Fold this protein.
Amino acid sequence: MNRKLLRFLLAAFAFAPAASTIAQTTDYPTQTVRVIVPYAPGGGTDITARIVAELLSKEWGQSVIIENRPGAASQIGIDFVSKAKPDGYTLLWASSDGLSVLPAVKATVPYKIPGSFEFISSFSSYPLVHSVSAKLPITNMKEFVEYAKAHPGQMSYASTGPGGGSHLQAAYIAKELGLDLKHVPYDSGGPASVAVAGGHAEFTEQGPSTVLPYIKAGTLRAIVVSGSKRASALPDVPTIAEAGYPNLTSDLYYGILAPAGTPAAIVRKVRDDVQKALKSPGMTERLNSLGLEPFGLTGDEFRTFVVNDLNRWTKAAKAIDFRLSGP
Amino acid sequence: MDFLQSLLMGFSVAMTPENLLFCLVGATVGTAVGVLPGIGPVTTIAMLIPLTFHMPAIGSLIMLAGIYYGANHAGSTTAIMLNMPGEPSSVVVCLDGYPLAKKGRAGAALAMSAVSSFVAGCVAFMIVAALSPQLSHIALAFGPTEYFATIVMALIMASILTDDSLLTTLGMCMIGLLIGSIGTDLTTGDERYAFGIPSLSDGANFVAVAVGLYAFTEIIEYSGTTAIRQKMSFSFRGLVPSRDDLARSWKPIMRGTALGSAFGIFPGTGPMLSSFVGYSMEKRLADDPSRFGKGAIEGVVGPEAAANAAAITHFIPMLTLGIPAGAAMAIMLGALQIQGIAPGPGVMTDHPALFWGLIASMWIGNLMLLVLNLPLIGLWVRLLGMPFHVLYPPIIAFSCIGVYSEQNSYFDILFAAGLGLLGILFRILGANPAPLILSVVLEPLLEQNFRRAMIIGNGDVSVFLKNPISLGILLFTAAVMIYFKVKKKTIIDDVVNLDDKAREPA
């Protein structure tokens, strides 16, 4: 009897903390949740984060605020979250450039992929559209290669900055296809597209949202898309794999992460509600209008995808012998 | 007929009660956040974006645009009243606006700046309506070579901003270019002069530079004076612009408007360049250039008109090329994309109601700003009547919050403080920091475009002379320099300048 009571009490004590964490996590969130966006307001990462934060706010009855912490190619914001208290109240909304491109080209980044984070869920993906100036007599990948071989050292590509996906993809294409191309860096997608549309550079690798208006206006021509599937915004444009270069396939993505050590129940709750947001009515159309596709990998799937992507970009950076310095 | 149709359509869109309300809300919120340092238009627009998800595209854009130009306008208010430029385009307003305020003529300066903004807005609106289809092609023709030539022109024309000797001005430009070169090298991605400090890796924070060199310097200099300086004198007569002000102002307003409308078409830099070049143009054309820097009303209204005209014509490259003039504009482009409208060449033809409605709303918004701001002038002037030891501590606090909130960086506050000390050194040496600020902002553009032109041209410097547009711009710049040298640099002028300097050090 006494023993039974003792056992019961011990068991009760043992389970008490567990029970209280369950109570806590089902309560989550009990205060404002901040989602760190490692870019300045206005870009694709920021826009998608704001769309999701608004839906999560409604779902949770708590404010979910976006905090922009831009700088050093998104390293500052990502680093901030990796060192934040893992209590579920500081989350990260990041893109491939910070998670799998930057660590591939920079000697040291202050966070570890995947070690520093809990991978909650990816949200959307987009391809890089290989677009040439419409002034050039190029309509497919074969003609592109022929033209580039006929004009060695004369063709240049406009990128969104050194060490980003836009630069690496173009440089990797040049390397794999044996082309002699020049890199003209811009600081963002808009000016880089304009440079090619105006004929000041020959081609650019960018997400559909930036180049689509120029493709419609006839100043840029889409040759291939880098994604594993065709882009819904450009259904007639073949993928780079269809054009014969499967090893150049790359899907860029946006997703939500938490600092490593965030309680599993919180990660699960955020994941379920982000997935719910992704499946909410009209979301696919909304993403498509931004040149994005729904892309809802969860947990380990998302983690594996990011690690594979990081390995691919590391290989690309080695192949083109490109390294970024800096802290 | 196309022109009138566009105009009418724009107004019919902007004049619906709903859109008028959005415009009023935007202009009011913009004025409020522009006057309160610490919360800028960028933060405000970003915070309001989720609200616009459920608003019609045109309404949300009208409201966000209202915040943008409302805050811009208020930025000139703080420049005149407190010598604190809120953004690059209001730096030059400090040059003569603040001396006017010190003379007790803040009211007149504020009123005239509001009027000049409005007039410039009206004219620029007409220009956009008449010429925009043609104008959007010009911007596409501009590549790195053409941009480089344009920026050289702007730097040279604006380097005659101040009365300082050529050596001093060039020296300030060089220091500015050095500060501007802090940050990540655009070609290699390597960091320069960042010393491992994260907030320097994307370049020196403009707000920190401006607050340091203007607001902090002003406060340090005041604290250094042993005698308690008297309050800024103010009288009610000073509130109303005099007949003389009006007579002096109308020509600069017209010139500034013409200049700003033309410069606004350049993607990215239009409004800021316009205000700087507008100022130096007025100074060069004035009968008595020595009045500039000491409270010449022309030095306020000219650049103010130029900046505002440019802000309106700037909507052409922004909407048709998707290149924003600054952080606030970048978020507006984001808001546009959320509504399913991609900025690009199609905006004007696919969404004419949105384009013209927005432009028309800017005109209406400027009228609202005029009505909102004129009654407030008395209040601002009374605020200045407060003793400095009451006024300055909150200014320091708000400035620090403003600098911090740009990048959430404590280092930026220290950086601003350091520049404040540098600013004191400049005051002692009698060197005006305006050319420095301009160089800080223009350095990245100058360097990046030069290097792009070199990459594309395989390192051949003669590309700048082979390209017809850049050759034309460079020849024009040379012609302007020679013209002013012949016209203005007489011995008498030099004597007058020397004389002034002798009497009024610093």
Q: What stands out?
A: The two ends of chain B are 56 Å apart (CA to CA). The CA atoms of residues 74 and 292 of chain B lie 23 Å apart. Confidence is low (pLDDT under 50) at residues 489-506 of chain B.
